[in-house]
Design the sequence.
């Protein structure tokens, strides 16, 4: 049994909140640069150039002013004992990171009363038990311009692959310019209503250039990316090839009566940062 | 061609801008998002004066990150505009002539723009660090309790914008996409 003090988790969450919001991962930068090379519509190229310029700004300025809700994913080794309150430690990390990093406080404590919590807490916390004695922490700040364009459908088994394709393409079409294209499309297929949505969110954590390890779904990802980039929405919705940078699909078993499909859209500021304790 | 435009807008300039125009905007703009719009419209419903001059005003839909010491503002890109659709026609009819945001607008907003000769600008969503460089000063006007959503007066210099919807109702989200798809064949 390994003992990890909760304050170490606080420190890591604070660091990761700042890093994720101020440094775009290299694989995201590379995906945007590739899209710029492949874009053939001049107005779209101009916008991609500005986006690249924005991503290169240093000095701790957040890439986007919507520094998001802090989605925190913890993989806790089952041979670890955490000394102190875990949820409190994570929230304290968010509080500290968002204050010390000059990040925006974008959380209201009650969805209808709508009073700002003042420190961006609580985190949207997911914990998972895994083998081993380590703790892997990922902070994925999620902006709501793109979150608001996300959808879930409880499709029928008879809707099949075509129904899944249609729902994904229709979600991107309806979102149009709103989620700040070029976007990243996270898809969950299967599970229950709740698990399906979580799969879609987790799909956004995958490296931009990493296809699904399942050959069928890797092929479906390629096909959907091509279809989305034939819609013509383009960067910022002003027209062009580059509507999406990647489509990532995650799946799990589901019920004989169901075919849940969730689409979680992310903008081109596809942020997340990870540390292992 | 890029047009240099000054805010607040005069009615002739607002009407002369065309969907698809690239604009560098300089002058005074006011920030407001959902919560501030709601309060402004509550004031308007009571016939009370607004906390800033609305005649010719350009409102930027933005909730910036906090400024670091020595900086006028933090990251400052646009938020999605349709959330302000419920309130925008009221402010347009009071004299607002420009809105800066990103994303689609509803038919009632576009109708109000045509009626009043107003213009909707798009700023690049997700480029808040770059856009912040065009903000030379920021001063709190009201609603400090709203935090990032407070109303601020910004002095901007050469803020790069695109006219998305003009006062005739031309819409770049429709025409830009159609033009791209047409040349692609």
Sequence:
């Amino acid at each position: 049994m390994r003992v990890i003090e909760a304050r170490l988790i606080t420190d890591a969450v604070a660091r990761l909140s700042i890093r994720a919001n101020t440094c775009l991962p290299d694989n995201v930068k590379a995906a945007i640069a590739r899209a710029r090379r492949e874009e053939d519509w001049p107005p779209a190229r101009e916008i991609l150039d500005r986006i690249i310029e924005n991503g290169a700004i240093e000095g701790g300025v957040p890439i986007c002013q919507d520094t998001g809700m802090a989605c925190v994913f913890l993989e806790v080794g089952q041979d670890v004992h955490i000394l102190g309150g875990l949820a409190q430690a994570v929230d304290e990390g968010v509080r500290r990171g968002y204050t010390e990093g000059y990040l925006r406080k974008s959380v209201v404590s009650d969805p209808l009363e709508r009073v700002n919590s003042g420190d961006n807490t609580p985190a949207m916390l997911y914990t998972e038990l895994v083998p081993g004695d380590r703790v892997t922490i990922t902070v994925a700040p999620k902006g709501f311009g793109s979150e608001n364009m996300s959808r879930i459908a409880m499709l029928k088994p008879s809707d099949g692959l075509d129904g899944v394709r249609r729902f994904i393409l229709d979600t991107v079409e309806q979102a149009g310019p709103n989620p700040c294209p070029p976007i990243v499309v996270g898809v969950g297929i299967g599970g229950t209503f709740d698990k399906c949505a979580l799969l879609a969110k987790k799909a956004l954590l995958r490296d931009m250039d990493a296809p699904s390890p399942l050959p069928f779904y890797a092929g479906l990802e390629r096909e959907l990316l091509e279809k989305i980039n034939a819609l013509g929405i383009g960067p910022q919705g002003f027209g062009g090839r580059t509507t999406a940078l990647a489509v990532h699909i995650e799946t799990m078993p589901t019920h004989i009566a169901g075919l849940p499909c969730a689409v979680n859209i992310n903008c081109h500021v596809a942020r997340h940062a990870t540390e292992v304790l | 061609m890029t047009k240099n435009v000054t805010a607040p807008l005069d009615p002739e300039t607002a009407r002369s801008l065309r969907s698809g125009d690239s604009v560098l905007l300089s002058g005074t703009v006011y920030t407001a998002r959902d919560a501030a719009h709601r309060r402004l419209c509550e004031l308007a419903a009571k016939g009370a004066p607004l906390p800033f001059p609305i005649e010719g005003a350009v409102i930027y839909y933005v909730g910036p990150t906090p400024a670091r010491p020595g900086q006028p503002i933090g990251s400052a890109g646009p938020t999605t505009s349709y959330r302000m659709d419920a309130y925008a026609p009221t402010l347009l009819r009071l004299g607002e002539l420009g809105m800066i945001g990103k994303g689609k607008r509803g038919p009632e907003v576009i109708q109000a723009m045509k009626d009043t000769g107003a213009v909707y600008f798009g700023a690049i969503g997700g480029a808040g660090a770059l856009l912040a460089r065009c903000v030379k000063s920021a001063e709190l006007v009201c609603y400090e309790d709203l935090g990032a959503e407070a109303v601020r007066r910004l002095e901007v210099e050469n803020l790069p914008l695109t006219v998305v919807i003009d006062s005739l109702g031309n819409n770049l989200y429709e025409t830009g996409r159609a033009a791209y798809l047409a040349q692609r064949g």
About this structure: Chain B has a mean pLDDT of 96. Chain B touches chain A at residues 35, 62-68, 74-77, 79-80, 82, 102-104, 122, 124-130, 132, 146-149, 160, 162, 164, 172-173, 176-181, 183-184 (CB under 8 Å). The first helix of chain B runs from residue 11 to 16.
